[in-house]
Design goal:
The chain has 71 residues and is mostly helical. 46% of the residues lie in helices and 0% in strands.
């Protein structure tokens, strides 16, 4: 695959995505670049880590005691 980066007006964004979705499946990938929105995978990871923290499991954090002592 080849990669193209494109900036597109908000007014035509949905139309452009609709055009892309008419292409054969697997012939393109869309990588949204909105830093304020988490991907599905990022949300799953966030909830997984939050559940561990809620259970007292801080194993995902290196040197957690050092960080905790600073605050």
């Amino acid at each position: 695959m080849k990669t193209i980066t494109i900036d597109i007006s908000d007014k035509v964004y949905n139309l452009f995505r609709g055009l892309l979705q008419q292409l054969p499946k697997g012939s393109y990938n869309i990588y949204d670049e909105d830093p304020d929105v988490l991907s599905v995978e990022e949300k799953k990871e966030l909830y997984s880590i939050k559940n561990k923290i809620d259970k007292g499991d801080l194993s995902d954090f290196e040197d957690w005691n050092e960080v905790q002592d600073r605050f």
